[in-house]
Amino acid sequence: MNERLIRDLVESVWxxxxxxxxxxxxxxxxxxxxxxxxxxGLRAWHESDSQTWSDTHYEIADLIATGDxxxxxxxxxxxxxxxxxxxxxxxxxxxxxGVHFFTVRDSRIVAMWATADMxxxxxxxxxxxTPPAR
Length: 134
Prior knowledge:
By secondary structure, the chain is an alpha+beta fold. The protein has helices at about 1-15, 20-25, 40-50, 120-125; strands at about 25-30, 35, 55-65, 70-80, 95-105, 110-115.
């Protein structure tokens, strides 16, 4: 059941951009990487993120569900069409991996922690990184 919830989240919200469905998946208030968040706050993040990354598509690489916990490894592809921090739009289509860990209770996500491979994103966009001078 929890596995199906996360698969549906990826397809309808992440890929289908049905952000109005976020309350169907998340508790009214949930733990978002150690800070409180709401479906409305998450919707604002998705809307903002879509200004930087167009045509984003998530593919499930691996999904493991046990009890109230779900671990998701995903791969995203997107076209860079807006500023990403100091990086101006490049128009490039890139791919990167990430993971999400969810806690689900009563068919709603009550906690979510995520990380993505920002280094790979930066390299594909042509960002050069210089270590600080000593």
